[in-house]
Amino acid sequence: MKIIVEAKSLSKEFQGTTVLRNINLTVEKGEFIAVMGQSGCGKSTLLYNLSGMDRPTSGKIFFDGQELQELPEPQMSSIRLKKMGFVFQKANLLRSLSVRDNIIFPAYQAGIFKREEINENARRWMEQTGILSSAKQDVRKISGGQQQRASICRALMNRPQILFADEPTGALNSSATGEIMDIFNRINAEGTAILMVTHDGKVAARADRIIYLEDGAIGEELILGKFSKDRREEREKRAAAFMR
Ligand SMILES: Nc1ncnc2c1ncn2[C@@H]1O[C@H](COP(=O)(O)OP(=O)(O)O)[C@@H](O)[C@H]1O
Ligand SMILES: [Mg+2]
Fold first, then answer.
1. 40 lines ligand 1 (CB under 6 A)
2. What atom in ligand 1 is closest to the CA of residue 39?
3. DSSP H helical segments within the chain, as ranges?
4. Domain that holds residue 213
5. Is residue 156 situated within a structural domain?
6. What per-residue confidence (pLDDT) applies to 25?
7. 96 lies in a domain?
């Protein structure tokens, strides 16, 4: 299988404090990886570095074979916009725009799809995530869970090759979480790689493998294989045992 993102000896320090230690990680095209670990162990920092939103102190990051640090900023921004999707811990929505306008904004910036396709894609994602009735609302007026779903819609608009998701279901109840994870499994089956941080073992059980980050280094790993609905209980049991 081809590799979409690769970290080689990635280390990250903030003011002399080491947060990521010598990380070697490959994400294959169409792979779904869950990253777990205690608060403060470096999960978000890992996502920021792998996606080129932050730069490592040492080591290299490759996206589709290209070393990210060697790319000039405009090219890196273009890759982030057109080939990567992001769901942050906080939704980071533009406060002056409606739910729908927040979702379609990066699609217009990218210019990959025509106006009608953008409108139809936005409608479809809002419907699938259950926020279609809030499309015209001011983002300040909707709940945290709805904001999180809007940021998921926004991340999927340009059909990214890889989705970086930092606790994407953190603000959702269990039924909404299940619906979002069904979407993640579906887009993953259609070829989008996913790197997702989560504290929820049931959510992690949807991934192909679970990586445990410990004090900035990759510790144990659990291989689950491709998700299938009929093996859900067994996967959840294995993920729960792995977390202990
Ligand atoms: N921009 C930053 N400046 C200084 N320290 C940071 C910065 N970002 C993260 N850290 C520190 O790095 C460590 C890991 O943070 P983070 O990656 O957010 O952990 P996690 O997502 O696993 O909870 C924490 O100790 C945090 O305080
Ligand atoms: Mg975090």
1. yes
2. 23
3. 43-50, 73-83, 99-110, 115-129, 144-156, 174-189, 201-204, 232-243
4. 3-91+164-243
5. no
6. 98
7. no
pLDDT average, residue stretch 186-205:
97
Q: β-strand 3-14 against 66-67: which pairing, if any?
A: unpaired
Is the beta carbon of 198 within 6 A of some atom in ligand 1?
A: no
pLDDT in tens, 75-115: 999 999 999 999 998 888 999 899 999 999 999 999 999 99
Is 159 inside any structural domain?
no
Q: What is the CATH number of the domain that holds 31?
A: 3.40.50.300
Q: Could you give the CA distance from residue 79 to residue 75 in angstroms, rounded to a whole number?
A: 6
Residue 108: CB within 6 Å of ligand 1?
A: no
**pLDDT for residue 180:** 95
pLDDT tens string 3-33: 999 999 999 999 999 999 999 999 999 999 9
Average the pLDDT over 193-221 and give the result.
97
- Residue 90 has what pLDDT? 86
Return the ligand number nearest the Cα of 215: 1
Q: Is the dihedral of CA 85, 222, 180, 167 positive or negative?
A: negative
Closest of 2, 166, 155, 191 to residue 80, by C-alpha: 155
Predicted local confidence at residue 220, as pLDDT: 94
Give residues with Cβ within 8 angstroms of 48, minimum separation 6: 54
CA 39 to ligand 1 centroid distance, Å: 9
Give residues with Cβ within 8 angstroms of 62, minimum separation 6.
3, 5, 6, 7, 8, 68
Residue 116 inside a domain? The answer is no
How many domains does the chain contain in total? 1
**Three-state SS at 61:** strand
Report how far ligand 1's centroid is from the alpha carbon of 2 (Å).
Answer: 31
Q: What's the chain's length in residues?
A: 244
